[in-house]
């Protein structure tokens, strides 16, 4: 249902832009087949939470946080999906990230998993090479455990709206220090799709060069991304600096598309450590500010129509996730209600989005 409905939206985008600028998803069936290393596999085809158990020298891993010197460390991963028989694979893990990687900010940094591809065939990790694991920053603290669930749902909203987004898989993860120097614990995590795989399944390639401008990327997709970030209270991003933003290029058409990621500094996740950039003049992370591109009237209708079409499913994400704090569910419903009141009221829409849009990126 998700893929077909997102596809309908992108077909509408293609019709609005003309065939010379068709979105990457519209070309996915005719694009050259990606290399075996980029095959997406089955990992993100299910929403059922995984159970993961990492065993190794945990303390050494957690202390290895120098971004210039961080090394991979060997771990044994025991994994289980639903009632399936548990599997085991040797993986290499290193720390990653920026703010959350720093020890003063997080007890457990985000991790990068490196899989031996020859050993994962026939498992839930088939086709995977590198995967990011989003971890609980301070395991054992209820608020930080909730943050992982909240950020996971922000990705799930994005996945509903467009396939040009990184997919996620929730997991209950246990860490075991085989040296006995670190206590074992179990915490919420989620796996994040590799950006190159995301590009490949959309018939595109990932670009690394900074300096992207609003006028070189697909305007409707940038509009969709901008409104999505406005909806979730996301202001911590830069297209030109590739800060919390990737750019992919459609292989057949050459069109560029933006892809946002990293949502813990958004209003809808509402972490205690997040704060807006002072230059934006916002009072709190919950305050929304549209920093996206200006669109034509027809293009605004197309973009906003996608959010209206998915409204029930977006609300449903928060009502159906086990373990999510009921008070947060109610707060988020009100937060989303405020968004929909804006896009459904012509005067609010004009003041909040149409008059604040930008032809070029800037503060």
Can you describe this structure?
It is globular, with a radius of gyration of 20 Å. It is built from ten helices and ten strands. The chain is 32% helix and 18% strand. It has helices at residues 2-17, 58-63, 117-120, 142-161, 195-201, 219-231, 297-309, 311-319, 326-344, 346-354, and strands spanning 50-56, 73-81, 87-95, 111-114, 130-134, 168-177, 185-192, 204-207, 245-250, 256-260. The protein has 363 residues and is an alpha+beta fold.
The end-to-end distance, rounded to whole angstroms, is 37 Å
Radius of gyration: 20 Å
What are the segments in which pLDDT stays under 50 over at least 5 consecutive residues? 6-37
Describe the global form: globular
Total domain units: 2
Mean pLDDT: 89
Order of helices and strands: HEHEEEHEHEEHEHEEHHHH
User: Order of strands across the biggest sheet?
Assistant: 1-2-3-4-5-7-6
Main sheet properties: 7 strands, mixed, barrel
Distinct helical segment count: 10
How many runs of DSSP E, i.e. beta strands?
A: 10
What proportion strand? Answer: 15-25%
- The level of helicity is 25-40%
């Amino acid at each position: 249902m998700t893929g077909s409905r997102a596809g309908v939206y992108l077909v509408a985008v293609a019709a609005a832009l003309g065939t010379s600028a068709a979105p990457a998803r519209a070309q996915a069936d005719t694009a050259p087949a990606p290399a075996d290393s980029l095959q997406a596999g089955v990992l993100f085809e299910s929403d059922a939470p995984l159970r993961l158990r990492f065993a190794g020298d945990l303390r050494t891993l957690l202390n290895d946080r120098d971004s210039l010197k961080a090394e991979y460390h060997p771990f044994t991963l025991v994994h289980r999906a639903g009632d399936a028989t548990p599997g085991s694979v040797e993986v290499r893990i290193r720390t990653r990230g920026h703010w959350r990687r720093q020890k003063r900010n997080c007890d457990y940094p985000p991790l990068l998993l490196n899989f031996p591809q020859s050993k994962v065939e026939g498992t839930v990790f088939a086709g995977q090479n590198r995967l990011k694991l989003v971890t609980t920053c301070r395991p054992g603290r209820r608020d930080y455990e909730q943050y992982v669930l909240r950020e996971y749902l922000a990705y799930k909203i994005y996945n509903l709206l467009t396939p040009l987004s990184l997919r996620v898989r929730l997991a209950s993860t246990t860490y075991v220090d085989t040296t006995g120097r670190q206590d074992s614990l179990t915490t919420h995590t989620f796996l994040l799709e590799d950006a190159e795989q995301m590009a490949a399944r959309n018939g595109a390639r990932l670009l690394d060069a900074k300096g992207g401008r609003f006028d070189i990327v697909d305007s409707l997709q940038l509009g969709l991304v901008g409104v999505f970030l406005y909806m979730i209270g996301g202001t911590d991003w830069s297209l030109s600096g590739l800060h919390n933003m990737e750019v992919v290029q459609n292989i057949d058409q050459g069109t560029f598309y933006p892809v946002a990621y990293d949502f813990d500094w958004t209003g809808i996740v509402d972490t205690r450590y997040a704060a807006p950039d002072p230059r934006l003049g916002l009072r709190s992370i919950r305050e929304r500010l549209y920093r996206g591109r200006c669109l034509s009237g027809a293009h605004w209708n197309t973009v906003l129509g996608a959010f209206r079409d998915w409204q029930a499913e977006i609300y449903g994400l928060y009502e159906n996730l086990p373990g999510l704090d009921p008070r947060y569910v109610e707060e988020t419903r009100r937060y989303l209600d405020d968004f929909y009141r804006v896009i459904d009221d012509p005067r609010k829409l004009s003041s909040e989005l149409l008059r604040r849009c930008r032809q070029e990126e800037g503060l």
